[in-house]
From TrEMBL:
Cell cycle keyword on record: no
Protein name: Carnitine 3-dehydrogenase
Domain 3-hydroxyacyl-CoA dehydrogenase NAD binding: 14-187
Gene3D superfamilies hit by this protein: N-(1-d-carboxylethyl)-l-norvaline Dehydrogenase, domain 2, NAD(P)-binding Rossmann-like Domain
InterPro entries listed in its UniProt record: 3-OHacyl-CoA_DH_NAD-bd (IPR006176), 3HC_DH_C (IPR006108), 6-PGluconate_DH-like_C_sf (IPR008927), 6PGD_dom2 (IPR013328), NAD(P)-bd_dom_sf (IPR036291)
Organism: Saccharopolyspora phatthalungensis
GO biological process, one term: fatty acid metabolic process
SUPFAM superfamilies according to UniProt: 6-phosphogluconate dehydrogenase C-terminal domain-like, NAD(P)-binding Rossmann-fold domains
GO molecular function: carnitine 3-dehydrogenase activity; NAD+ binding
Involved pathway(s): Lipid metabolism; butanoate metabolism
């Protein structure tokens, strides 16, 4: 690691390479957090589209709360990729999902970016191991996988490749947290990362049900928005099932409902509920609960569900 590269909290200059829906969302997010953002995209008309995207996102960002000094005036348009990254202290690449394109672009970014500066890719499915193969200094490249729109959805998943050094993963995770994101630092690469795999599981089962005449798209959407989706904003699926076990928590839930894993409730093959998996789920939920009792979690869940329901009702009915 280059000792002259600032700590994540001291970064002021960010480069965004690729300014489509995802890349433009990153630009808007970084501007709202007070960074100077230099952007480049190979499309000849990218500047006009990017500024329209930032303008459209700004009211939502203002409602969320702008950082001191945040302004659309901090956007700099670069003539070339090399100009964009010349003085960058962090680089976010957001090119289309084309492996050959990603490999070539990341190699160009790596060659032009100051030594030691971390380079992050917005890829939705490729692993950094397969993207960094042509990079001269692959040790500083990580995946920083956002969710659309990046200026509004807080989650970013961070993971390195086989040639990435751990300091780069730790630096990127800290930087994203400083920049106002909710960060998951993954232990290892997995195709699609975490959230996309979960989304894809629901999506594939939904397509099966529609194809077989078992449910309509409207019914599928309502099954989430009027059901488990109301609980997930606070607890997520694991702690939701932790509460399904009552006072016995996840241990009781697994012992009671574990056999249902063999039931044909999904086209996905269920893993074997081994003692190791059972113990990992119980321990993980205890850690996620952070010392809160089942009763405390239930009370938090109920308050959150009510708040979400009221907020959604306000949006649907045009209430402030």
């Amino acid at each position: 690691m280059n000792e002259h590269i600032p700590s994540p909290a001291m970064v002021r200059r960010v480069a965004c390479i690729g300014t489509g829906v995802i890349g433009g969302g990153w630009v808007a997010h970084f501007l709202a957090r007070g960074y100077r953002v230099t952007a480049w995209d190979p499309a000849p008309d990218f500047e006009a589209k990017l500024r329209r995207l930032v303008d459209a996102a700004w009211p939502a960002l203002a409602e969320l709360g702008l950082a001191a000094g945040a302004s659309g005036q901090n956007l700099v348009i670069a003539a070339t990729l090399e100009d964009a990254v010349a003085d960058a202290e962090f680089v976010q690449e957001s090119a289309p999902e084309d492996l050959a394109l990603k490999r070539d672009l990341l190699a160009r970014i790596d060659a032009a970016t100051p030594v030691g500066v971390v380079i992050s890719s917005s890829t939705s499915g490729y692993g950094m191991t397969e993207m960094q193969v042509d990079c001269p200094t692959p040790q500083r490249l990580v995946v920083g996988h956002p969710f659309n729109p990046p200026y509004l959805i807080p989650l970013v998943e961070v993971v390195g490749g086989e040639r990435t050094e751990q300091w780069a993963v730790a630096w990127a995770s800290e930087f994203f947290e400083v920049a106002g994101k909710s960060v998951i630092t993954m232990q290892r690469e997995v195709p699609g990362f975490i959230a996309n795999r979960l989304q894809e599981a629901i999506w594939r089962e939904a397509l099966h049900m529609v194809a077989n005449g078992e449910a309509t798209p409207a019914q599928i959407d309502a099954s989430i928005t009027e059901g488990p989706g109301l609980r997930w904003p606070l607890l997520g699926p694991c702690l939701t099932f932790h509460l399904a076990g009552g006072e016995g928590g996840m241990a009781h839930m697994l012992d009671h409902f574990g056999p249902s894993l063999k039931s044909p409730w999904t086209r996905l093959a269920a893993p074997e509920l081994t003692d190791e998996l059972r113990d990992a789920m119980i321990k993980g939920c205890e850690e996620a609960a952070g010392g809160r009792s089942i009763a405390e979690l239930v009370a938090e869940r109920d308050r959150a569900v009510i708040a979400v329901m009221r907020a959604i009702d306000g949006v649907r009915n045009g209430k402030p």
